[in-house]
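Re: that chain you flagged

S.,

Sorry for the slow reply, it's been a week of failed gels. I finally had a moment to sit down with the sequence you sent. For the record, here it is as I used it:
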Amino acid sequence: MSRVVFVCLALLAALFAVNASGQVEGERSMSSMSNRDNSPQTQQEVNIIFATYAESDEGLRCVRFLAESIREFAGKFRNAPIWVYVPEALAASDGDVMGRLRQLGVDIKTSSIPPDAAWFYYAGKTFAAGVAEAAADGKTTVLVWMDSDTVVLQEPGAFDLGRGIGFAYRPVMHNRSGSLYAEPPDAFWSRIYDKLALDADSLFSMVTPADRQTIRAYFNSGLLVTRPEHKILRHWGESFKALYRDSVLARMCQEDVDKRIFLHQTALVGAVMHALGKEAMIELSEQYNYPIFFKKMYGAEAEFDNIEDIVTLRYDVYFSNPEPDWSDQLKGPAKVLTWMKERLGKQ
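Prediction finished late last night. Pasting the structure tokens below so you have them in one place:
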């Protein structure tokens, strides 16, 4: 065999080997991609945990609808873990709703509250949030804490917090208990700022979605997107203790039920502001935490009856006594409206 022929044959053999190797590697890569696509959770989905709180059977029904909406509409996050925290007594129940939650892959966990906090509204969810954050620390990049009356309508892409962002929020719905940015804080907020070691002049402003009031930073506790390592939700409970154990604020809460209702939410201001600077926070768009029929329940400048582009909505107590034609009043995708009518209208 001539040297030229030998060299040609050697080159052909080498080329065949490289091609075969590339084909094998390609098949391995495609196989790996296929396995990831067919897996219950992608790595990105594991990086978010949804968590909420329920303290009654009615609250558990709301959690069921929340969980079903995540599994149906949350896109790349639809298979993310869902945790619900409940009191010990409720965890012992074994009804149809509990069974459905387990079918949906919801982890049912327990939490408790300090005895001296029981008189204050929403103490249960405040302390449960801290327990959830502690459990999530090291297990997820982002913890999404939501009230149980939330429905997810499409993939919540903004929950995938960008680099350098540790907290995403919405303002409180309306200025029922906030501090107007253009005016000095009243006695209630002055006391809160003092107990939480905050300077009112250092707080940034935000606008309430329902009545368009410009107020000092006051975060809606119904939707909190956090990185657990910042310990915002754990500090929330500690800030709440500092407030409700103060005799001056306790007296104010006895005299004004609104202060008693919202004291837990005021505590968030200290927890957030001591954890992060404004540059590490983002305000979510009005597509998130959208309060349907809010005007009918509490009054508002907008109707809040169009969910066409809404990502997450809140329904508060509306479906405890809904209008017969509520679904005709609500504008939105037919599939979503049908889904809601099959569930929420039957509460």
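What I noticed first: The CA atoms of residues 73 and 154 lie 5 Å apart.

Talk soon,
D.
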